[in-house]
Amino acid sequence: MPIGVPKVPFRTVGYRRKSWIDIYNRLYRERVLFLGQGVDSTISNQLIALMLYLSHENEKDLYFFINSPGGWVIPGIAIYDTMQFVRPDIQTICMGFAASMGSFLLVGGAITKRIAFPHARVMIHQPAAIFFGGQVTEVILEAEELLKLREVLTRVYAQRTGKPLWVVSEDMERDVFMSATEAQTHGIVDLVAFE
């Protein structure tokens, strides 16, 4: 029998009695965010709304835990842009696996505040597209757009890791899997936790 989303007791300020709320809402109140799935428009909009709301409350750091196989590029870039826009620093923490767009969001955390758990894995690569047919001109336009997105992602990785653009560009030609320590050496994270 699945346990569903666990509930925890929480006392709202001004109330005597505790109420039961799901654990994620409780953690949001502590400024802890999670990406535990592929990036799509729905989770992107939810995370953006949480970042904006919590940054409006105060300027304490946000903690963004990432365990994601990647996902859509445009919704991921929207999350990244919001991370750069909000006033509080966003500490990114890789637990499990941060692949593709997950690694892009991981590198987007506040520099010096990007962490990987010791057994975490990170993977970077170039964006991919699936062409479903259609007219040749449409395929060409999509390919041109894909190249523009690749350039954006490459420049961000280079800027945030301190690696030369040509090194990042070569790395993104294929899937590059890294341990937490290798991700630190590569500049994607600043610290491996518990070391």
TrEMBL record:
Q: Which family does it belong to?
A: Belongs to the peptidase S14 family.
Taken from the record, one Pfam family name reads: CLP_protease
Q: What does the record give as the reaction this protein catalyses?
A: Hydrolysis of proteins to small peptides in the presence of ATP and magnesium. alpha-casein is the usual test substrate. In the absence of ATP, only oligopeptides shorter than five residues are hydrolyzed (such as succinyl-Leu-Tyr-|-NHMec, and Leu-Tyr-Leu-|-Tyr-Trp, in which cleavage of the -Tyr-|-Leu- and -Tyr-|-Trp bonds also occurs)
Alphabetized GO MF terms: ATP-dependent peptidase activity; ATPase binding; serine-type endopeptidase activity
EC numbers on record: 3.4.21.92
- Mind telling me which CDD domains this protein's record contains? S14_ClpP_2
Give me the segments passing through the membrane: none
Q: Does the keyword Transmembrane apply?
A: no
Q: What is this protein called?
A: ATP-dependent Clp protease proteolytic subunit
UniProt enzyme class: hydrolase
* BP GO terms, sorted: protein quality control for misfolded or incompletely synthesized proteins
HAMAP family to which the protein is assigned, alphabetical: ClpP (MF_00444)
What keyword terms does UniProt attach to this protein? Chloroplast, Hydrolase, Plastid, Protease, Serine protease
Q: What broad class describes the main subcellular location of this protein?
A: plastid
